[in-house]
Write a structure and sequence with these properties.
The chain has about 240 residues and is an alpha/beta fold. It has a single domain, classed as Vaccinia Virus protein VP39 (Rossmann fold, 3-Layer(aba) Sandwich), CATH 3.40.50.150. Helices cover about 45% and strands about 20% of the residues. The chain contains 8 helices and 7 strands; from the N terminus they run H-H-H-H-E-H-E-E-H-E-H-E-H-E-E. Strands 3-2-1-4-5-7-6 form a 7-stranded mixed sheet, with helices on both faces. Helix 5 links the parallel strand 1 and strand 2.
């Protein structure tokens, strides 16, 4: 092999290696550093939750007692399944406590959701689609006590647009509630604070006896993430 060719191959190898070993971008480095320091990330690993968002629901449920043994729960935008894990524990849908009533947990998401004992998942299903609503209804033994939604659209980089998309998704939950939620039931849904959130709050107030804004400690302080907790569902009159 000629010297020139050898030098070329060495140079190419070093160039490829440099690409493989390229340092993460600044934003990626900040994210990794935040994840390493986040106590909820560490706790989720320790307690075998699929992601840190489990602690948001745990905190809200500890305070407001939404999820009780025997309850029927629909988890909208369920992937990766952390909220469903909490729901399974709280409503006893896996039958872990034989002395308590056994509940039901059904979830849906556009993404694949890994199987979970005590939950039935509809992977690759759009929870905003009426066809998915009909499938959810078929899986429920009776009308749901609670609708959960931690879903969010993929970030576009335009905050107002992303907020509007999330509010639009949340509005479809009102249609789903009419189909599957029992009178007196509850809805917990995530939204991003912005100019469109007030319209969602007004619509929820028309069909729920109580609507409050909740921001759990597990929700990062610098995030515009909030939750509407709507209780005492009353079916709208048409």
């Amino acid at each position: 092999m000629s010297t020139t060719k050898s030098v070329f191959l060495v140079s190419r190898t070093l160039h490829c290696s440099a690409r493989v070993l390229k340092k993460p971008k600044a934003a990626e480095q900040r994210w990794l550093q935040r994840q390493r320091k986040d106590p909820y990330v560490k706790a989720s690993h320790k307690q075998n939750f699929r992601c840190r968002s489990a602690f948001k629901l745990l905190e809200i449920d500890d305070k407001f007692k939404l999820l009780l043994p025997g309850h029927v729960v629909v988890d909208c935008g369920a992937a990766p399944g952390a909220w469903s894990q909490v729901a399974v524990q709280r409503v006893n849908s896996a039958g872990t406590d034989p002395s308590a009533p056994r509940g039901t947990v059904v979830g849906a998401d556009l993404l694949n959701i890994a199987a979970l004992d005590g939950a039935h998942f509809l992977s690759h299903h759009d929870v905003t689609d009426p066809a998915t609503h009909a499938k959810l209804l078929q899986l429920l033994p009776k009308r749901a006590h609670v609708l959960l939604s931690d879903m969010a659209p993929n970030a576009s980089g335009f905050k107002e647009l992303d907020c509007e998309k999330l509010i639009s998704s949340c509005l479809t939950l009102i249609d789903l509630a009419e189909m599957v939620l029992r009178p007196g039931g509850s809805l917990l849904c995530k939204y991003w604070d912005g100019p469109f959130s007030h319209s969602l709050q007004e619509k929820l107030s028309c069909i729920f006896g109580s609507v409050r804004i909740v921001k759990p400690n597990a929700s990062r302080k610098d995030s515009s993430e909030r939750y509407f907790l709507a209780r005492m569902y009353r079916k709208p009159i048409k």
